[in-house]
Write a structure and sequence with these properties.
The protein has about 400 residues and is mostly helical. About 70% of the residues lie in helices and about 0% in strands.
């Protein structure tokens, strides 16, 4: 049977009936601004081309305007599954993080958008939706009732059509023994290599991680190839390896450049951003630059890194590497403390204890230190001991 027909039959027979009973009945994803003028077909095609090059080949990270235009196009052309998929990736991979914080995005709403794109026949959406049906936590977690058999059938149909993402996902399942499969490292390696051959650059880091279980030297060579190809996760892993095992200043310099590349192209994990920021702030094997540190701490904070958010607030309050902005810094600090982030509660407690930027209130300071200690910040205990002595 023709692989495309097979994939459509699988979706029609098993997945489409699920659409009759909506999986998620929550609010829609947060809206985006409207573009200044209606989006043309030419603009849509250019934006899809840019998003596709980024998604598969780790090309230049698209700006949020591309997602805004595709969202407007998708709203006006609801049967365009390809455009809808790249709107989904814009939300899922934080391309619109300056407009929508990750915490505002519901996993269930993301899966609903992915499901709609898959139902419209876009293959990459179908292979990714198959992973949600299988219940793999490495992709999405918004589906409450996995259907492993239907998901595996759909994924196999996408593999038969030579979808690169489907090969990547099958390699991940076989690596981890998920989806009712026994772990099979040899088979996983073949699927990951095929994903790379088909143009999915993100498979390099997965392949290296798999190989590291049995052959570190082989894994390092794979990381080098992946980093050169542009896989930001491979760049991060290779940088950390060089930092850990490097024996020369050239190794450490290369590690830092790899971290910069990874941070510039990574839109989900803030790990590379925070490592770059810390290096600039502390002058670790790089010239200290608190303005550059502030830039990268902001980027990490936008991806939900709490320590980075606290550091941004601190630098704003001090005017360290940035223009002083006490109002914004205090607002960020209060919000972090209200979210029960222990170090922020301790910092705010110190301000109340010393009467800095706020009216002195020892009782409130003590309450904040107690909350911080309960929320896991050991430094709060030092202040509590001092207050008891007094």
């Amino acid at each position: 049977m023709n692989p495309m027909v097979h994939a459509r039959l699988i979706f029609a027979a098993f997945v489409m009936p699920m659409l009759a009973c909506p999986m998620h009945a929550g609010a829609e994803l947060p809206p985006l601004p409207q573009p200044p003028s209606p989006v043309t077909r030419v603009q849509r095609d250019n934006d899809v081309k840019m998003m596709s090059a980024w998604w598969y080949a780790c090309g230049k990270v698209p700006d949020q305007q591309a997602v805004i235009r595709l969202k407007a196009w998708s709203d006006a052309h609801p049967d365009d599954g390809e455009a809808l998929f790249f709107v989904y990736t814009g939300y899922r991979l934080n391309l619109v993080r300056e407009l929508v914080r990750p915490s505002q995005i519901s996993a269930g709403d993301l899966v609903a958008m992915l499901e709609k794109s898959a139902s419209l026949g876009f293959m990459s959406a179908q292979s990714r939706y198959a992973m949600t049906l299988i219940g793999s936590k490495s992709v999405e977690t918004g589906l409450k009732a996995p259907d492993v058999r239907t998901g595996m059938d759909l994924l196999q149909a996408c593999i038969a059509k030579r979808d690169p993402d489907a090969h990547l996902y099958m390699g991940m399942l076989l690596s981890n023994g998920e989806g009712g499969l026994n772990a099979d490292f040899d088979a996983a390696e073949e699927y990951l290599k095929k994903a790379i051959e088909l143009g999915d650059i993100r498979a390099w880091a997965q392949l290296a991680t798999l190989q590291s279980r049995s052959d570190e030297d082989k894994a390092e060579e794979t990381l080098k190839l992946g980093a050169e190809a542009g896989d930001p996760e491979a760049q991060l892993l290779l940088a950390k390896r060089l930092q850990r095992l490097g024996a020369s200043s050239e190794d450490y310099a290369q590690a830092f450049q790899l971290l910069l590349l990874s941070a510039s192209n990574q839109t989900i994990s803030p790990e590379a951003h925070i490592l770059v920021a810390d290096s600039y702030f502390n002058g670790t094997r790089v010239q200290p630059d608190h303005a550059e540190a502030f830039h990268w701490y902001k980027a990490a904070a936008a991806l939900g890194h709490l320590r980075a958010e606290l550091q941004v607030a601190t630098q704003l309050l001090q005017g360290d590497g940035c223009k002083m902005d006490i109002e914004t810094g205090m607002r960020m600090l209060q919000k972090l403390a209200e979210s029960k982030y222990g170090p922020a509660e301790t910092f705010l407690g110190v301000l109340y204890l010393e009467g800095l930027l706020v009216a002195r209130d020892i009782g409130h300071a003590k309450a904040l230190f107690e909350a911080a200690a309960n929320d896991g910040d050991p430094s709060a205990n030092r202040y509590l001991v001092a207050l008891r002595r007094n």
